[in-house]
Specification:
single chain; 397 residues; eight-stranded mixed beta sheet; six-stranded mixed beta sheet; 14 strands
């Protein structure tokens, strides 16, 4: 069974074609700058070099047609017929509280995704264009949507509600939704499998750390809390996002800097975080390098990030009444040994003990806690595309 996984943005289309008989990737690629001058596609057949094509790609339908042609190409393709593709799975950033799990696409599902556009205005419209494009190209093929918010729908109401008047929740659906749910779900399952333990009987904290970062509390296999909120702005310090702060900061800074609502939103999402504190970069690698050379602001940015993650681990341990496993994943979580060490330092009272030699790894599955650490600390590379492919297979096989 072959599954095409699609992740569309407003001007991009990422794809991976899986052979679900062995969960291998047959081909993958990225269509970039859709509807913009200089559009191109980078396609890679597994085992071969990248194949790049620069051409005019005015919309997502043209982009999808180009992807399908490359999958059939005699030199760069992996299919003899498009009939070999059994289904397509789509990443959707926000399903609001309409969806608690992945679902097959129909008219009602598409309508609900449209209603969630205010919750993810930069993402959901692109996702919808991707679905429309594949439906246009292969109208009889089933499609499945997998929501980044779905895994967090098991949170209790006291965890996802804000202290606003209740009718704001009832009428505007303002509440905590979280993000990166597909990643948190994948690594929680894989960590339990990797450690050989029953996920239905443990308390785990998953740390998805990248340019965007979120922390989730996973108790007995279910998400009970997560750090991102109504939008991905909440939680720990990120590449260009503020993370948590006093809400009164918003009108105060708006007035002080004479910013409108959209300008303030951009200020918090695009100019803050590691970039805003360090003045160096939004990329932690650059910030760490500057900190190691004595840049005080860069050092401060690193400390704020590590301190914020540590606070969430402490809070979620209290919320769950204990802790068995900490998982690090995504770009920073998988590759920054110093961040992992900095986060875990000081958590010895919880039973967390890092082995520096074991922690000296990048981008691979590993136990990095000491043999006598009561809490297991592991690195698990995330694979959201595979999680989407698995859900798509489950719903269409």
């Amino acid at each position: 069974m072959k599954i095409l996984v699609i992740n569309c943005g407003s001007s991009s289309l990422k794809y991976q074609l899986f052979d679900m008989d062995n969960e291998s990737v047959l081909a993958k690629g990225l269509v970039d700058r859709i509807g913009i001058d200089g559009s191109n596609i980078t396609h890679k057949k597994t085992g071969s070099e990248d194949h790049k094509v620069s051409t005019q790609i005015p919309d997502h339908k043209v982009a999808m047609d180009l992807v399908l042609k490359l999958l059939l190409d005699k030199d760069h393709g992996v299919l003899k017929s498009l009939d070999e593709i059994s289904a397509a799975g789509h990443r959707i950033v926000s399903g609001g509280d309409y969806f608690k799990e992945s679902v097959l696409v129909n008219a009602e599902v598409l309508d609900a995704i449209k209603k969630c556009i205010p919750l993810a205005p930069l993402h959901n419209p692109g996702h919808l264009m991707g679905i429309e494009a594949i439906q246009h190209a292969l109208p009889k093929m089933p499609n499945v949507v997998v929501f980044d918010t779905a895994f967090h729908q098991t949170m209790p109401d006291y965890a996802y509600m804000y202290g606003l008047p209740y009718d704001v929740y009832e009428k505007q659906r303002v509440r905590r939704y979280g993000a990166h749910g597909t990643s948190h779900h994948f690594v929680s399952l894989r960590a339990a499998e990797f450690l050989g333990i029953d996920i239905s009987k443990i308390k785990m904290i998953t740390c998805h750390l990248g340019n965007g970062s979120s922390i989730s509390a996973v108790q007995n296999g279910k998400c009970v809390d997560t750090s991102m909120g109504l939008t991905p702005l909440a939680g720990v310090l990120m590449g260009t996002r503020t993370g948590d702060m006093d809400p009164a900061v918003v009108p105060f800074v708006q007035k002080a800097l004479n910013l409108g609502p959209d300008e303030m939103n951009n200020f918090m999402n695009k100019k803050s975080g590691l970039l805003g504190i360090s003045g160096v970069s939004s990329d932690l690698r650059d910030v760490e390098e500057a900190a190691n050379k004595g840049n005080a602001r860069a050092k401060l940015a690193v400390e704020i990030l590590e301190y914020g993650i540590k606070k969430y681990i402490g809070a979620y341990t209290a919320a769950m009444g204990g802790l068995d496993v900490i998982v690090f994943t995504a770009g920073i979580g998988e590759n920054s040994a110093s961040t992992r060490e900095g986060v875990c330092k000081g958590l010895e009272f919880l039973g967390v003990k890092i082995d520096p030699a074991k922690n000296n790894i990048r981008g691979k599955e590993a136990i990095i806690s000491a043999d006598d650490s009561r809490v297991k600390v592991v690195v698990i590379p995330t694979n959201e595309e595979l999680m989407i492919a698995r859900d798509t297979k489950r719903l269409t096989a």
